[in-house]
Design brief:
With 315 residues, the protein is mainly alpha-helical. It has 14 helices and five strands. The protein has two domains: 5-182 and 282-311, HUPs (Rossmann fold, 3-Layer(aba) Sandwich); 195-277, Tyrosyl-Transfer RNA Synthetase (Orthogonal Bundle). It is elongated and about 75 Å long. The structure holds adenosine-5'-diphosphate (ADP) and tryptophan (TRP).
Length: 315
């Protein structure tokens, strides 16, 4: 039996941290064993946020290196770039023509953006339609996303249904797969680890940087076991084993932190080294991306031929 198809997009937005790794990135690698996988860099979505040539180029290359370094295997996963496949924006326009403003105004992400900035871009408003096109062009069975993106996948489903109703059966309805929140990874201060809080451990940190981060972890001196240290540490060792070690080191925060530094280094070093290796041959890395885009383009363009025919623009 042929494998089910998985598709997901990642926005290039800067330095990854271990929260991103355990919460999302690692799961793409794990799932690629069982699904025919398509993972793309959502650069046209990122254009709503990054409007600077050098920054954009750096962000795209950065996320590509990150994913290859953590072990996403181009033999198993088609890795491509949204902007290489013009069918995404073309289909988004078609969806725009039968999607209403009130419907888009109900999107959580739009409402959140409105709170932050009253004059949001048309691109931000329209975000779910480009995402619907991203998804529907490839007829995936599942779309793994974080909880915050679930509504967008539902929008893609609704949009497919609406199109099918108006123009006849064309799109397969995708299912969101909510990535098991490997419990939200806490940051150095115990709050959710996030770029926006400045409380992260970067995924490709050098040894000295790891040390600095770990020493900054906030500890509550009332406890025998420093909760924030333990919460990060248990991502790297079985909890039962770790509990025993922490029991033995009761009260000795420095020793626990030293052990966490060593464990983080063991976990990060191979990925960090692999990323450095990849950085030495950027043309090869970019060739992986163009090969992926070529493969994706074939699927997307075949689907668009069908769409143009269905809507009647092909005579
Ligand atoms: P950030 O909060 O650092 O800006 P993003 O919003 O770019 O991170 O998240 C990218 C992906 O990583 C999302 O799928 C999100 O669910 C996941 N993620 C981010 N931070 C964490 C965390 N602390 N724990 C678990 N998953 C996370
Ligand atoms: N909106 C997603 C995010 O912010 C990224 C994304 C764009 C995506 N297009 C997609 C995810 C299609 C899944 C499928 O994380």
């Amino acid at each position: 039996m042929s494998k089910k198809v998985l598709l997901s997009g990642v926005k290039p937005t800067g330095l990854c941290h271990i929260g991103n790794y355990f919460g999302a990135m690692k799961q793409f690698v794990d799932l690629s064993e069982d699904y025919e996988s398509y993972i793309f860099i959502a650069d046209y979505h990122a254009l709503n946020l990054i409007q600077n040539k050098e920054e954009m180029q750096k962000a795209i290359l950065g996320i590509l290196l990150d994913y290859l370094a953590i072990g996403l295997d181009p033999k198993k996963v088609t890795i491509f770039k949204q902007s290489d496949i013009s069918e995404h924006t073309e289909l988004a326009w078609i969806f725009d023509t039968f999607t209403t403003m009130p419907y888009l105004q109900r999107a959580h992400a739009y409402k959140d953006a409105l709170v932050k900035d009253k004059e949001i871009s048309v691109g931000t408003f329209n975000y779910p339609m480009l995402m619907a096109a991203d998804i529907l062009l490839y007829s995936p069975d599942i779309v793994p996303v974080g909880q915050d993106q679930k509504q967008h996948v539902e929008y893609a489903r609704d949009t497919a249904q609406k199109f099918n109703k108006i123009f006849g059966d064309t799109f397969k309805l995708p299912e969101p797969m909510i990535m098991k929140n490997v419990a939200t990874v806490p940051g150095l201060d115990g709050k959710k680890m996030s770029k926006s809080y400045g409380n992260t451990i970067p995924l490709f940190a050098e040894y000295e940087e790891i040390k600095k981060c770990v020493m900054k972890i906030v500890t509550d001196s009332g406890n025998d076991i420093p909760e924030n240290v333990f919460a990060i540490h248990k991502l790297l060792r079985p909890e039962a084993e770790l509990k025993k070690i922490y029991e033995e080191k009761k009260g000795k925060y420095k020793e626990m932190k030293d052990l966490l530094v060593e464990d983080l280094e063991k976990f990060i070093a191979p990925m960090r080294e692999k990323r450095k290796e990849l950085e030495k041959d950027i043309p090869k890395v970019l060739a992986i991306l163009s090969e992926g885009s070529e493969k994706a383009k074939k699927i997307a363009s075949a689907k668009m031929i069908e769409v143009r025919e269905k809507i009647g623009v092909k005579i």
